UniProtKB/TrEMBL annotation:
<feature type="repeat" description="TPR">
    <location>
        <begin position="518"/>
        <end position="551"/>
    </location>
</feature>
<protein>
    <submittedName>
        <fullName>Tetratricopeptide repeat protein</fullName>
    </submittedName>
</protein>
<dbReference type="Pfam" id="PF14559">
    <property type="entry name" value="TPR_19"/>
</dbReference>
<dbReference type="InterPro" id="IPR019734">
    <property type="entry name" value="TPR_rpt"/>
</dbReference>
<dbReference type="InterPro" id="IPR051012">
    <property type="entry name" value="CellSynth/LPSAsmb/PSIAsmb"/>
</dbReference>
<dbReference type="InterPro" id="IPR011990">
    <property type="entry name" value="TPR-like_helical_dom_sf"/>
</dbReference>
<feature type="signal peptide">
    <location>
        <begin position="1"/>
        <end position="29"/>
    </location>
</feature>
<keyword id="KW-0677">Repeat</keyword>
<keyword id="KW-0732">Signal</keyword>
<keyword id="KW-0802">TPR repeat</keyword>
<dbReference type="Pfam" id="PF13432">
    <property type="entry name" value="TPR_16"/>
</dbReference>
């Protein structure tokens, strides 16, 4: 994904990696006769060293120090668990095994221990051990989520978790619970093992034949296996039940859309009671299929009932009018939104519509008015600077764009969103030094800002040769958000740039399973091509092209490889 996506759409929470382990009082400071209770506390030195290593992005060192702390902290379950997870994140299997043994010793029989042991076994290709541990986990009522997580995160070779999942089905281990079977079925679909997916979904259908949500899952599997007509027939069979069940109706519409049938999805939503949310979803689907006549008809139907000044309804009408390029009507709807939180969005959108009308002077006047309005929240005023910068970008004026953001930063010094946006502008202009400077400025104020860490790490990996530095930044982000698809993609990409293509492919495939993003697909394709697997690579390039033919990462990969 472009750097902007990594920045703006991933405003992830920062996680300060502070030492949470108490410092034991010296004996002389304790009340007379008091006996210290509980497990022996680890020496603060290895804990602090581990934290400092984490903050520096040195996961290998962090794994070493946390294992040392876990050895010292006799009886400390949390420390042993943390040591295990950090070692696994660092791909240090020896340290992970030792830390896991300490964790198991201190909390024998814990479900988390057994699931983690299964996950580690999958990484090591030991499917027998993984199967044994997950069978034990699944014998406990309600514990199936541990097994799903272990299978989803374990294994460098996708065949290992797929084999274990098949073994669990053979053993009759999956509980007779609809939600459990649905989750295991979805997991099988993500594994890209068609035979396993067919089998898993078949088992779900056999056990819950009359459940319409199972039919949705079955339709997904059929479509994946190339049987779209059968999938559509299944979905049509659900329509009568969906007409009286709003939740099912929405799920059915989503399923139709996922099968590439936005028209059927919209018609499904058109049945039953209508509200602003339903109208909004229908409008999105009609826009997706570029059915402007139908969207115009919907717009007129909604407008006919808009006599009452409902802020949500008027905001939606403004959006639809703007999409239909009826910009004057859009401005009128936006200006007509009464007070409330919708009013702020309407004011910003009115600026956008005015700019589209070519009334740039009025657009500039209104956006500057928002920036100077002390009665609105600071976030709204800040967003007005971001909007003005975006308008300058659309006009192709990079210098004006950065000037607006610099003016915004004068009003809101060190604001993360403004610095992010300016970093994007610098990167787009190939001024990587300035992009780096803005991202580092964010990290001065928020050292563990995950989005900034990932964005800077990815930028260094993608646009410079400072790969080791990039790896350390991305590793810091991974500690806070180990299951974030964008961060996993960044990690896989920097491994590839370091020449570790086989390792990179494992992580890039996982990122793709979590988020079907065109840049991730381009990354997987490039690594496969480099490994000589060109037919597979072309499939991923085709996936990326279908999602976004103009994606910058895709274009760079195709040009570099001559694909």
């Amino acid at each position: 994904m472009p750097i902007f996506s990594r920045i703006r759409s991933n405003r992830l929470r920062g996680a300060l990696l502070l030492c949470l382990f108490p410092l034991a009082l010296p004996a002389a400071a304790r009340p007379a006769g008091e006996v210290p209770a509980g497990p022996r506390t680890a020496s603060l030195t290895p804990v602090l060293a581990g934290e400092f290593s984490l903050q520096a992005g040195k996961l290998g060192d962090a794994a070493h120090w946390y294992l040392e702390a876990a050895r010292e902290g006799e009886g400390d379950v949390g420390l042993a668990e943390r040591a295990t997870r950090i070692a696994m994140l660092a791909d240090d299997e020896a340290s992970a095994s030792e830390a896991l043994a300490l964790w198991a010793q201190r909390d024998p029989g814990a479900l988390a221990v057994r699931a983690t042991r299964a996950s580690l076994a999958l990484r090591q290709g030991d499917t027998r051990l993984a199967r044994r541990e997950l069978l034990a986990v699944l014998r406990t009522d309600g514990a199936w989520r541990y097994a799903v997580l272990a299978l989803a995160t374990g294994g460098r070779d996708p065949a290992a978790p797929a084999k274990v999942l098949g073994d669990l089905v053979d053993a009759g281990a999956i509980p007779d619970d609809l939600e459990a079977w649905q989750e295991f079925g979805r997991l099988a679909l993500r594994m890209e093992r068609p035979e396993l997916a067919r089998r898993m979904v078949g088992e779900v259908v056999k056990r819950f034949p009359d459940e319409p949500r199972v039919a949705l899952l079955h339709a997904t599997q059929l479509n994946q296996s190339g049987n779209k007509d059968q999938a559509l027939a299944l979905l049509r069979g659900i329509e009568p039940k969906a007409a009286t069940d709003e939740e099912l109706r929405n799920a059915l519409a989503f399923a139709y859309d996922a099968l590439g049938e936005p028209g059927r999805a919209e018609r499904t939503l058109a049945t039953g009671e209508q509200d602003v949310q339903t109208w909004g979803m229908r409008a999105s689907l009609l826009a997706k299929q570029k059915d402007d006549p139908a969207l115009l008809a919907l717009y007129r139907d909604i407008a006919a009932g808009a006599g009452k000044p409902d802020p949500d309804q008027r905001l939606l009408l403004g959006r639809i009018a703007e999409y239909l390029k009826r910009y004057r009507e859009a401005v009128d709807w936006y200006h007509g939104v009464p007070g409330g939180p919708q009013r702020n969005e309407a004011r910003l959108r009115a600026v956008n519509a005015l700019h589209a009308l070519g009334e740039t002077a009025q657009a500039d006047q209104e956006v500057r008015a928002i920036q100077g309005d002390v009665l609105v929240d600071d976030d709204v005023r800040r967003d007005a600077y971001l909007l003005e910068a975006e308008l300058r970008q659309r006009d192709g004026h990079l210098e004006a764009e950065t000037a607006v953001l610099t003016r915004g930063l004068a009003a809101y010094p060190d604001d993360g969103a403004l610095l992010y946006a300016r970093a994007l502008a610098w990167e787009r202009g190939d001024d990587i030094a300035r992009a780096e400077a803005d991202l580092r400025q964010i990290l001065v104020a928020e050292p563990e800002n995950v989005a900034a860490l990932n964005a800077l790490g990815y930028t260094l990996a993608d646009r410079t040769s400072r790969y080791q530095e990039a790896l350390e930044l991305i590793d810091r982000a991974r500690v806070a958000e180990p299951d974030n698809a964008a961060i996993i993609d960044s990690y896989g990409w920097v491994l590839y740039r370091l020449g570790r293509a086989q390792e990179a492919l494992v992580h890039l495939r996982r990122a793709w399973s979590l988020n079907k993003d065109p840049e991730v697909a381009a990354h997987v394709g490039e690594v496969l091509w480099t490994l000589g697997r060109k037919d597979e690579a072309r499939r991923f390039f085709d996936e990326a092209r279908a999602l976004d033919p103009d994606n910058r990462a895709l274009q760079r990969a195709l040009e570099a490889l001559g694909a």
